[in-house]
Write a structure and sequence with these properties.
Two copies of one chain form a homodimer. Chain A has 670 residues and is an alpha/beta fold. In chain A, 35% of the residues lie in helices and 12% in strands. An eight-stranded parallel beta barrel of chain A has the order 7-10-11-12-13-14-15-16. The longest helix of chain A has 33 residues. Chains A and B meet through helix 18 of A and helix 18 of B.
Chain lengths: 670, 670
C-alpha cells in the first residue's frame, strides 16, 4: 500500500473541501512580467489549479496578460518586481484581485503557496496580506537515504528515492518536491552523508541520466539537488592510490570529474561532504587539514557555480572511556576554529546545533559564531534519532527556536545563531539551515502523522526564523486537520509541550545519551558509559555529570566570555544544562530548593504522567480526526507511554540503586 | 583459502612424521570376525593406512584372515567378541601383534583410533594396552548452523554444511566426520535448533538426496545423523491451520511425514526439538504440555527406531525486570518436574548443564536428577558463547568435570550427574551428553587453534567421563603439537588454568551475565539488568546478587535437601556460587576475610594479570610451534588481553562508582 498511495500531508486540498470556502465565482491567474514558459511558473499555475479544484471545486483560468483575462473574474496576479530581495514576496488583495509580487520565480511560488495556505486556514482570499523575505539563503533537507533502500536513522519506512541500488522516480517524487517547495525548501541532498557502495557511483555514467531527471523535477519547484560525496572517490572510482587533497593527480581527477558531472548535471547545486568522521575517509589520513580538503573540492567546482558543504561533525570516535580529558564536545571547535578564514567563498561549513549529536538538550555549538570569517550553516535533525524515533511525540521547533535565539556574543549586535547562520552577522552570501529529514516511504511520509509537524515546521522556520513555534504548529494543524478552534489549540498545545515532556522522562538537565546503543531508542543508562564514543554521564554513588569547566575538560572556555562565565559556574549555569557542564552531587540543592536526585525522580514521574496526558488529549480529538489517522497515532502513543515508563523506571531505579537516596514522595522505584 | 584447505587437527599424521616412530618393518591388518565389506571396517582400514603412511611412511597390508597375512609382518588384529559391551574395546599387544577386540564395528573403530592416538603420542605399538567402555550411550554434537551459511553463536567462520540455502558436501565433510569418530562421537545434529526458512525443508524432497548422502558419510564412521525439527512444520509445510500435538490431523501429518522421511533417510537417528522457547512454536500455544508435544513425535517416529530429543530450555523470555519473583533459573524444573515419568521411552530430554544459559559458572540444573523416571541427556556448549568467543582461551573440560561429578543426592549412590546422564542411576537406555559445537569453515575449524582442545575434549569426556581434564588436555596437546615434555606441560597448564582466569576477569562468584547484549562478548555490566531476559544481578549501592533462597525466588528449594541446605545459607553456599544464590553486602567478609567488594576488585586485577601470563607462556613456545599457528594464537591473546582489561576496568569502575568503597590496594579504578 505504501508504494502506491501516500498522504498529501498539509497540501491535502480534498480533505479541506467543504471546510473552507471562496466566494469568488471565477478566478483568473494573470502573469505580469513572468514568463508562462518558465518551469517554476508552470508549477505555480498547476498548484493553483490543484488547490482551487481540491479546496473549492473551482476551475481557474490562465491569462497571458491582464487584458486577456475575463472581465468579471477574480484575478490572481503574479507580478515581477526586480527591486525585491531574492525569494521574497509581497501579497496584497482587494475585492477584485490578489497580487503576488516577487523578483524571481521562487518568490512567486512561495507567495502562491502562502495564498493557498491562508485559503486552507479559512482566510478569505481578499483578506490575505503578507510581506515575506527569506531569513536564510540556503534552506536545505539532508536525506540519509542509502541506495539499497534503507535509511540511516529513518523511522518512516524505506527510501522513496532508491530501491535495489537504483534510483526510483515516480509521482511520489513529484509530490515530495511540491511539499518541500510549499515550505520554501530550496536545496535537497538526496543521499546519505556516509557515501558507500552504489552511492559512490552517483557521479558516474551509471546514474547520470536518472540524477539529471531528478534535478529537472526539483528545478520545476525551484529546488536545487545536491549530492553527498565520497572523499575517497579518486581511489574508489579513479583507481588512484590516494585521495590526498594536495596530490596533483587527485586534484586533476576532481577537476575532470566535476567537468564531467556538470556537463551531465548542469542543474546540480553542489556537494555535501562528511570527511574524517566515524570511519569516513578524509584529509587527516594524509596529514592535511579540513580546509585543505574542502578547498580542493571548492576550487574544482567553482567554474560551474557549485558549492561544497563541509560538515564539522569531526571527532575521535575511538575514545577511551577512562580518559577524562578528551572531550568529544570540544572536537568541532578544536578542529575548525583555527581554520577560520581559510575556506574558499564557495565552501560552507555545516555545523550541528550542539557539540554532541542531536540530543534532546545540548548547549549551542561554540563553533557557530566562534567562526567569524567562514560561511556557516546550521544543521539540525528532524529525523528523531535521539528524540523518540517518530514514535514519541516531539515537536522540535521550540528547540530550534532556542538555538536560533541563542546569543553568542560574537559581536555587539546581530550575534544570535539566527543572525550568524543567515549571513546577517558577517555578510556571508552562503548561509542557511539544513535538516536531516524524517521522511520515508510510509504512506504518511513520517511514520507518526504528527511528526509531519517537524517536516513542515523546519521549512517554515528556515524561511522565516522570526515565526514562533506556536504559529508554525497552528499553521500546520489547520492545514492538516479539520479541527474546530479549541481543538486546534489542544493539538497545538500537545505539540508545544511535547519536547519538554520527552526531555523529562528521558535525560533531563543536559545529561543526554543513556540510550540503547546503536538503536538510540529506549533507555540504557550505562549503554554509552564505557564505550568508545565519547558520551559519558560519569555517575557514581555521589553525583552525576561531566565537568566541562576550566577545572574539567575546558569545553566551557570555547564560548565568548559572557557565555563561558555562565557555563563555567554551577550557580549561574542554566539549570537545563547543569549536568552537561558540571558534575553535581545528588544532594545539591537546585534553584527551587529540591535536591538533584529528587529533581531526577520528580522529572521522570512527571514526564511519564504528562505523556499519558498527551494521549488523553489526543483521545479527546477522536470525533474530529479521520479514523485511520486517529488509530495510528493512538498506537504511537501506546508505544510512547511504554517507552516513557521504561525510562522512568530504569532511570529512577538506576539512580536509586546508585545513590541509595529514597524518593521523598515514596513512589515506586525498583 | 579456508574453502579449499583446512587443518587436520589432532589427526595431522604428516605433522608428526619424524617425531614419532614405529620399529615394525611391515604391518598387516587382520580381521577376525568382522566383515571387510562393512562400511565402518572399511573406514577403519583406511584410517590405519593413512596413519601409518603419514606417521611412519609405512604401507600396511590387509588380510582377510590370519592365515593370509604375511608371516613376518606385525599384525593388527581386529577381533570380534560378542560378549563385550557395545562400542567398548580392549587392546592387547606384544612383540608380534596388537589385538583390538570389540563386539561391534564402532568399538573396533574407536579401538583403532586409540592405537593411532597412542602412536602419535610416542607410545611403542607393542606397549599399547587398554580396556575402554563408553560412559554414555549417546555422545552428540549439536550444530547451530543455518542454511544461509551463518552459524548462531559461531566464532569460526561460516558453516561447512551449508551455503546459499543448500547443503554442501565435500572432502571437508568427510574429514570432519573422521575427527568426530576419532573421539567417539556417535550422533550429530546438523542444523540449528532454531529451525527456520530453508531448514524447515530438510524433511522434504528438496533436500532428501543430499541429507541421505550425508547420512551415508556419517554412517561410514559409525555416526548417526540427526536433524533439528520445526514444531510448526504441519503449518509451514503441511498447510494445516495448527500444530497442536493432540490434533488428529497434526498427528496424521507427522505419521505420514516420518514414514516419508524414513523411506528416504533410513539411517536417520531422529530429531532434536526446541519448542516453546525464545519465540519458537510449541505445544503451549494449544494449552498442551511439553510431554504432549514430545510424545506425539515420539510415537510417530517409533516404528522406525528413531528418537526424539526434546530440549528443556523453556522459560519466559519476556520477563519484566521489575518483577523479583519470576526467576528464569526456576523455569526448567517448574515446567518439566511434574511431567517426570510421562515421556515415551524413545524420547529423551536434553538439559543444559546450568539453569540459565552456559555462563562461566552456574549451579547444576536441578532438573538433572530431579527427574528420576525420564530419559535425560546433558547439554553443554563448547561454542564459547559466554566464555570468550574462541578469542579468549577457555578450556572447558574442568567445568564439565565439575558438572559430571556433582552429587545430586537423587538416591543413595550413583547419584552424580555423570551417573544420571549415562543411564547408570536409573537404568535408562537413552542417555548421554551433547555439546553445542564450536566449529566453522575457518581453516583451523575452531577460530582459535587452542579451542580445538574443547572439540577434542568433549568427545573424549563423553566417551569416558572418568578421564581427567588434564589427561585429555595432554592427549590433545601431544597429538596436535610437537612439543617436548616440559613444553607440553606448559601448554596443558595454560589450558587447565584458563577457565578460572576467564571467570576471574569477567563475572566471578556465580553472578554471570554482565555481557554486551545480543553479542555476548565483552562487558556491559547493566547490559541485561533492565531487560526482558530474566538475567539480573540486582546490584545497588549496598550489595549485589540474586536472592534465590526460600526468602527469595525459592530456586534453591528445587534441589534435594542436602544441596538445598547448602545453597540456601550464605555461610554454607560454595563461594563460587555465592552471588547466584544470595544478595550480599559489599562489606560482608568472605571466607578468607576479604570483603566482597575487595574480592571483586582483586579477582579482576588478578584475572587480567593472569591472562597476560598466559600470553607470556605461549610466547615461550614460539620456537616449537609452526609460525602460522603461533602468530594466529598470539593475535587471539592480544585480543583476549584487551578484553580482560575492559572487563577489569569496567567491572571495577562500576562497583566502585556504585559502592563508593575504594580498593584497599589503591590500584587504578576509573
Amino acid at each position: 500500500m505504501n508504494k502506491t498511495t501516500w498522504s498529501q500531508l498539509w497540501l491535502d486540498y480534498g480533505k479541506k473541501k467543504g471546510h473552507v470556502s471562496c466566494d469568488k465565482e471565477s478566478i483568473a491567474v494573470v502573469l505580469d512580467g513572468f514568463s508562462a514558459e518558465n518551469r517554476v511558473i508552470k508549477s505555480l499555475k498547476s498548484e493553483l489549479e490543484k488547490a482551487f479544484d481540491g479546496l473549492f471545486d473551482k476551475k481557474i483560468a490562465f491569462a497571458d496578460d491582464a487584458k486577456s483575462a475575463e472581465e468579471k473574474a477574480y484575478r490572481i496576479t503574479i507580478a515581477k518586481n526586480d527591486s525585491m530581495a531574492a525569494e521574497s514576496y509581497k501579497i496584497e488583495a482587494d475585492s477584485k484581485t490578489i497580487k503576488v509580487v516577487a523578483s524571481c520565480e521562487n518568490g512567486a511560488l512561495y507567495g502562491v503557496f502562502h495564498v493557498i495556505r491562508e485559503l486552507m486556514r479559512g482566510t478569505a482570499i481578499d483578506a490575505i496580506k503578507a510581506e515575506c523575505k527569506p531569513s536564510n539563503p540556503l534552506r536545505m533537507m539532508n536525506h540519509w537515504d542509502n541506495m539499497d533502500g534503507s535509511i540511516e536513522r529513518g523511522y518512516s519506512g524505506e527510501s522513496f528515492f532508491y530501491e535495489n541500488n537504483d534510483i526510483v522516480i515516480s509521482d511520489r517524487t513529484r509530490d515530495y518536491v511540491r511539499f518541500m517547495a510549499s515550505v520554501a525548501v530550496n536545496g535537497i541532498v538526496i543521499n546519505n552523508v556516509n557515501v558507500k557502495d552504489a552511492a559512490s557511483y552517483l557521479i558516474t555514467d551509471r546514474f547520470f541520466d536518472k540524477v539529471r531527471e531528478l534535478t529537472e523535477i526539483f528545478a520545476d519547484y525551484g529546488i536545487k539537488l545536491y549530492l553527498s560525496l565520497n572523499f575517497a572517490s579518486p581511489i574508489e572510482l579513479g583507481n588512484l592510490p590516494v585521495c590526498d587533497p594536495l596530490d596533483k593527480d587527485v586534484i586533476k581527477w576532481w577537476d575532470d570529474k566535476f567537468a564531467e558531472v556538470y556537463k551531465k548535471l548542469p542543474l546540480l547545486g553542489g556537494f555535501l561532504v562528511k570527511a574524517d568522521s566515524e570511519g569516513r575517509p578524509g584529509p587527516f589520513t594524509y596529514g592535511r587539514n579540513q580546509a585543505d580538503g574542502a578547498n580542493m573540492l571548492g576550487k574544482a567546482i567553482a567554474p560551474y557555480g557549485g558549492i561544497i558543504i563541509w560538515r564539522c561533525f569531526v571527532y575521535n570516535c575511538t575514545q577511551d572511556w577512562r580518559d577524562r580529558k578528551t572531550d568529544r564536545a570540544r572536537a568541532g571547535y578544536d578542529y575548525f576554529k583555527e581554520l577560520d578564514g581559510k575556506f574558499l567563498d564557495n565552501v560552507i561549513l555545516q555545523i550541528k546545533n550542539g557539540p554532541m549529536d542531536f540530543q534532546i538538550r545540548e548547549p549551542i555549538s561554540p563553533l557557530i559564531g566562534g567562526l567569524t570569517k567562514t560561511n556557516q550553516m546550521l544543521e539540525v535533525q528532524i529525523a528523531q534519532e535521539y528524540t523518540g524515533h517518530q514514535i514519541d511525540l516531539c515537536y522540535l521547533m521550540p528547540m530550534f527556536k532556542e538555538v536560533l535565539n541563542f546569543k553568542t556574543y560574537c559581536q555587539k549586535d546581530n550575534d544570535t545563531v539566527a543572525d550568524i547562520v543567515s549571513g546577517r552577522s558577517f555578510g556571508n552570501k552562503l548561509a542557511g539551515m539544513a535538516a536531516v529529514i524524517n521522511t520515508g516511504d510510509n504512506a504518511n511520509w513520517t511514520g507518526n502523522y504528527l511528526a509531519a509537524a517537524n517536516l513542515y515546521g523546519f521549512g517554515r522556520l528556515a524561511y522565516d526564523t522570526e515565526l514562533s513555534s506556536e504559529e508554525i504548529a497552528k499553521e500546520w494543524a489547520e492545514m492538516s486537520f479539520n479541527l474546530e478552534g479549541e481543538e486546534t489549540n489542544k493539538l497545538v498545545s500537545m505539540l508545544m509541550n511535547s519536547r519538554e515532556i520527552y526531555e523529562k522522562y528521558t535525560s533531563p538537565l543536559g545529561i543526554g545519551w543513556m540510550v540503547t546503543p546503536h538503536e538510540h531508542y529506549g533507555p540504557s543508562i550505562d549503554g554509552y558509559e564505557y564505550s568508545r564514543w565519547g558520551t559519558y554521564h560519569r555517575a557514581d554513588h555521589l553525583g552525576i555529570g561531566v565537568d566541562r569547566t576550566d577545572k574539567g575538560t575546558g569545553y566551557a572556555q570555547q564560548y565568548y566570555p559572557e557565555n563561558t562565565e555562565n557555563y563555567n559556574d554551577p550557580d549561574k549555569c542554566p539549570e537545563e544544562l547543569l549536568l552537561f557542564f558540571h558534575h553535581i552531587a545528588y544532594d545539591r540543592k537546585l534553584k527551587d530548593g529540591r535536591t538533584l536526585i529528587q529533581y531526577i525522580y520528580d522529572s521522570h514521574f512527571e514526564g511519564e504522567a504528562e505523556a499519558e496526558k498527551l494521549f488523553e488529549t489526543w483521545k479527546g480529538l477522536e470525533a474530529h480526526v479521520e479514523p485511520e489517522v486517529f488509530a495510528s497515532v493512538c498506537h504511537r502513543f501506546e508505544m510512547q507511554i511504554a517507552n516513557a515508563k521504561e525510562w522512568r523506571d530504569q532511570v529512577n531505579s538506576y539512580f536509586y540503586r546508585k545513590s541509595g537516596i529514597p524518593d521523598e514522595k515514596g513512589r515506586e522505584i525498583y
